[in-house]
Amino acid sequence: MTRASAILMLLAVGCVACQSTTGPTTMPTTKPATTTTTSTAPTALEKRFQAELDRARGELGFPGATAAYALSDGTVGVAASGLADVESRAPMTPRSRMLAASVGKSFVAAVALALDQEGALDLDAPIQTWLSDRPWLARLPNHDSITLRHLLTHSSGLPDHVHTPRFARAVAKRWKEPGNPFPPEALIEYVLDEPARFPAGGGWSYSDTGYILVGLIIEQVARRPYYEELQQRFLAPLGLDATTPSDQRALPGLAAGYTARDNPLGLPAKTTSAPGMMSWDPAVEWTGGGLVSTSRDLAVWARALYEGRALSKPYLDELLHSVPVGGVDSGVRYGAGVAIHQQTPLGPSYGHGGTIPGYVSSLRYYPDRHVAVAFQISTDVGLDDAVGHIERRLADVVVARKQQVERPAGD
Fold it and tell me: What pTM was estimated for this model as a whole?
């Protein structure tokens, strides 16, 4: 497996190969808000959607999960399966929240596009336009040729601090410290003086470090914290009330997540030390992801974003302006915080996913079907080969029902 495809699997952005019919292996034990409606009594579609999520949990053995779909008429369906806390036996509910991990990049990119529309940013300007006063800039690989668009599309050539041995050792040593021991500019230090992976614009390589830089640029031009920009521009207008910053340990409604006991970061196997209380500070993620959310909110967000309704002016051309991932023949491209699968069995798809110790999240939108599907799972163990299958199975249920409803009588 190439490094690019391995990263895609890790971050749950999916790949065409992941959507085969082969079963997954078993794993161990700013526009106004979009009107949405959620039925009180389960519909036939909701029942089938719930059954499919239950079936996936039965086959894969994960502790718990939530899932949601959003249809073109504003209907939102939700499902929950399993446990939100294995030890206390608390059930997972549609309101259970989980860390959304790199799905948060879709929000970061949307904020950058909004600022670009307003003339506060220029996507094709070099990053030194905004960061020239940072003492570390000259030590950043490709510092004199990276543009903001390069950062948003992971084509900057920057290494990724998350995958450096020094960062792993530091997290293992310091995660118990109070507060966030890794503020944004401390994360950038892990790639300083490192060789670039390729010249800026000359390839694709996933880099959380690049999105940390985007966050710094957003705050530089907005003159206020990124999370305030996000709340005012998208979370409040779209009614994404269950989506909040994961910038502290106390996260009400958080389901416990479960990771490998021998994880490379040395984190505890259970993410929570008490209900709604993280064992470690998730603020380390910041604009690399940085949100806690529900599947319902993610599905609603996907519809708004990928149908072109999240901003007051047209923006889809900029959002989908993309570079190839894993070679021009891979069928996968990456735009501004969006993985674009040019052809799946359900047509093209736009979306993102994320993995962080204890959680996996996925959102996908199928433009030919006008359907968004999202899910969150409370473990990151053993799911790399299963995420694409879950995405496809849940989407199949929704699309099949939608086609049945839309089919003219007598067909």
Answer: 0.89
